[in-house]
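Hi team,

Filling in the usual template for the complex we talked about on Friday. All components are listed, including any nucleic acid strands or ligand strings, so the model treats them as one assembly.

SUBMITTER: L.P.
PURPOSE: interface mapping
COMPONENTS: three
RESIDUES: 1059
SEQUENCES:
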Amino acid sequence: MKASWVLLQNGNATGNATNATAGGVARPPSAPLADSIAGMLGLDGAVAGPWAKRKITAAFTDRIAVNRVGPFGLLIIVADAVRLLSKELIVPDGVDRPAWDIAPIVIPFSALLGFAVIPFGSGLQLADPETGLVFAFAAASIASLGVVMAGYASNNKYSLLGGLRAIASNIAYEIPLIVTAASVVIFAGTLQMSEIVAVQQQTLIEIGGVAIPQWFAFVNPFAFALFILANLAEIGRNPFDIPEAPTEIVAGFQTEYSSVYFVLLYLGEFIHIFLGGALAAALFLGGPSGPVLPGFVWFYIKMWAFFLFTQWARSAVPRLRVDQFLDAGWKGMLVLSFANLVLTAILVGVIV
Amino acid sequence: MIGLLKGMAVTMKHALNGKTFTVEYPDVAPEVSPRFRGVHKFSQERGIWCRQCENVCPNDTIQIVMDDKRNGEQYNLHIGQCIYCRLCEEVCPVDAILLTQNFEFTADTKDEFVYNKEQLKNVPWYKGIDPLNSRNPDRDAWIGEGEGEIDYQ
Amino acid sequence: MSLEEPDPTDAVPAATSADAMEALVSEHVLSRDDHLNAPGYVVRPDAVQDTLSTLRTEAGLDHLSCVTAQEYEDRYESIYHLKSYDDPTHEASVVVPTPKDDPRSQTAEPVFRTADWHEREAYDLVGIEYEDHPDPRRILLPETWQGHPLSLNYDQERPQIVPLSEHANPLQDDQRGDEGETMFLNIGPHHPATHGVLHLKTTLDGEQVVDVDPDIGYLHRCEEQICQNGTYRYQIMPYPDRWDYISAGLLNEWAYARAIEDMAEIEVPEYAQVIRTLGAELCRIAAHMLAIGTFALDVYGDFTAIFMYAVRDREKVQNILEDLTGQRLMFNYFRLGGVVWDLPEPREDFFETIRDFLDDLPQALEEYHDLISQNEILQVRTVDTGVLPPEVAKSYGATGPVARGSGIDYDLRRDDPYGYYDELDWDVVTDDGCDNYSRLFVRLRELEESAKIIEQCVDLLEDWPEDNRTIQSNVPRTIRPEDDAEIYRAVEGAKGELGIYLRSDGTEKPARFKIRSPCFSNLQTLPEMSNGEYIPDLVASLGSLDIVLGEVDR
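RESULT (copied from the run log):
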């Protein structure tokens, strides 16, 4: 698939970049590792988009979805890829050319960049700088730039509305997101991703012989809920899918894209969802920890559970109106996240 | 929050109970009621060329061509233009035209949908159900005992 | 019976009889031209506003139901059909003839806001001009159309290709807002949320709507002319299904059946009335299910499960209707004098299917309430948005769930009874909220009321004596009502008051067939509801109005 080849190239680039700028590294990042992680994510996105999303929404709506092409309908991924990539790439009149072309590359690129520091477990981590957490969030935020580039350069009022909404929402929910992540840092005492995961392996309490690990979600479920909500807002999913809102502004910033660009944006959105899930898993759910199965598999399970949760929210939760959404961000989430910070400080003082 | 969570619980229940409302067409043929109005079938043996169907058709879908001796030559029905209102069947005094339950018909161009006498005679029954039998209680007023079989093929 | 008796302490307007009303407006009345349903007062073209406002304030006729325009051999005529919201059987028609060479009459828009669009349509299709009309543009046909299709001298062969770019005024400046920066956005005919091909010309200030101007006519199929070319007896009946095509076919067919049966004085046997009621309420359930589902689609986003559940429940209703009528959407089931088929054999199976559906309905409604009306985010989205105060609604001629959601207690099934409704036990659902949430809520509650009616009908049909099951009275093959008989009759369609005006000229085809579509009047309230609100509220209001473009444009 051509798309994953492009992503592989990006993955390779990220490996070199982090090596150059970061301070300490856990292990020298290798090209095959970067390629394999990026390729794996590309595969994830490919499975999630055409197949898993359809199957999951069909389950929620009492339908049988894709089941004709290949076993369990999995070859629909190939069929869809061929179909989407073979479409005509229509360049509308009056688009701002370099920005319009670069935007669909920036969005998946930022997500993949963030994946460079995620601890997948079983020794799979591309780079482990001391400021890994900050790097992950910084990389993910580059997507806002891509969205507004797409929205403004498209020469289309619907795209403009979508892009502006995206910027407003990203700014509004970025701060609660990072403040909530900061509460994790208070708990773990470090910004390094592998250390955060390691801190969560310790036992919290013993119940009936089973050791409940110190996952931050168990220690402070309030922070977990806040983080999930803020993450939903960052990636633009119900109830916060205002930037895309198909029933209001057609397709938002994606309106003018077709063929390859659309594939990049579509996959980029899914990779962002997985990045959000990976961050939630690493920060709150102990990363790759879990009984019996290897760490890598557990991490995957947690990432996909987050994806499932977003699809579930999409089926059942309405979207907020744009001003209510921004109100919720600035007046609600911000206050709550600061309160959570104080709460965490108290909790950490009590437990640790 | 409670309302939100209740809503999410409802959808999750639907996801987990595994029942589906859709069927895998065409492996599973859907149930169609006996009164369903599908493609028409015309029997030249029964037709008396009274032209009532052509008269009553709301959008002039049926076209009958007679020769100068008032014998019926052509009976054309554009099944793409037809609105499937069944007035032609209702008004026909001898059940020469009736609407089968067959809804599966395709063509490559719209003009191929103009069915002439031969094509109308050859329209297959849907799942082999004879619609005249299934609508019998309503049709008794029109059908006498008659002699011989009803000769739709 | 829970039919509400009219409250005797309500102020009953003094003038309710025909002569009393004539006395009120006697200085304008030129002559009487009584229709079969109402007294008709012929007035001069420049006395329209006075007459209408007098009748409105002193005779209590506050509902301008329809404005019919037609052309005779010797004159043009506009007819204002007035009704009262409190008592729809209290009607009057104001007939305004205008000369052939100068068809101008005064506009009624200052008195009734609903006349705005109705008169635009009259100008568009027939050619009567209305002086001082605030917006005298064509409404259904494009601006560049030449000629008026329903006038007698319309030339069908005349070329019509005038591109809009040539039609545009070269001296007109580009539109720029004076205060602040506004943006013009076409929420165009192609849009996921406009419920059909509706073009909204919106002017936006950021995310707020400054002005919305609906541009309809993309689905205009000349239904009125088609019906004028078909015979009363058989050929018109398949077409009402296609006005409100969202499974409300039987309700539309009943509008036509009621009008022609009252005009030609055709009796309908009681057994057929019960079957008609049963079919009509099944259609209402299907229509409301889809209204709720698509509203959820607009507010919840494209992957919502609610739309799928609503469609699934609607499928069950459509299966029942398929057993009964033979089709799932375009039923063609009613005939003049009754229905075309008795219930399917074996009857017990049919009743069991309906009863199973009714038994599952409360649980399905429970799910909908959990998913929709209890959802906090939906409440935040829809409460206090799209507000339509009752007085404004009345002036715009809003009917159906839109009016009942604003507290107006108007339901033709109860107030102007037809079919078997007055023998059954059911309630009219109103809600005082006047916002999107109350309209949604009214529809959800109406589902329960329709289920009640269906249950009673099924019980009645089961015990109906076998020898009394006439489904269609004996109606001649061709119907020729007497010359110049005019009637306007309405039924409670799924979206509101669906009325039909018929004029016969002694032949077997109508001379004028005017359809009063509820969505047409309801859609006109959209600017009232959404000016000053945000785009998402505009979309939600449009969804709560529940328009079907087939009915708006006909």
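MY TAKE: The radius of gyration of chain C is 23 Å. The longest helix of chain C spans residues 270-300.

Thanks, L.
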